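User
Class, as today's exercise, I want you to study this protein, comparing sequence with structure tokens, and judge whether sequence predicts the tokens.
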Amino acid sequence: MTSIDCITLEVTDPVAAERFYADAFGLGKQVRLRASEAPTSGFRGFTLSLVVSQPSIVDGLVATALDAGATTLKPAKKSLWGYGGVVQAPDGTIWQIASSSKKDSGPDSRQIDEIVLLLGVSDMAATKRFYVDRGLKVAKSFGSKYVEFDSSSSPVKLSLYGHRGLAKVAGVSPEGTGSHRIAIGSDAGPFTDPDGFAWETVA
């Protein structure tokens, strides 16, 4: 089964970005950084999610992200599915921070249970088939709206979302041009998906 080992964010200033991610989320080897001046504007077509166990952890991670220089796209609040908010890092990457729980049930921590990469796709059926053909197993599928792949052996979970729907969830306009500014590191070898997201072999 294909495993995603890490996500590489392409940023203008790797030193500043590394400081931000250390201060904001304490992220380690699952998120890597490298320099890029590739032109990009607007929505880059993806978000990254940090899934945690309870609202207090969401609030804590949002607060440290804002203190480190992030901006709020959606303030953390309760919703039908749980509790969460959306911030944008100084490098432009959009982060959703969420819990399926609506109330705290234990001591506070900064433990991140899952990192989820959500790709905004233009043709769900075609992209789903593309990834299944490359060894990913579908765990959940909701028609043309959402696909979640089995991540039992993967440090990073992969999900597909309609492009416009994902932009709405993130609180941004769906328009965007240029580089996605992201590379997906896995054991599946180098390839590019139908929406232009690049996969590469983990060094």
Notes: Residues 55-67 form the longest helix (13 residues). The radius of gyration is 16 Å. The first strand starts at residue 4 and ends at 11.
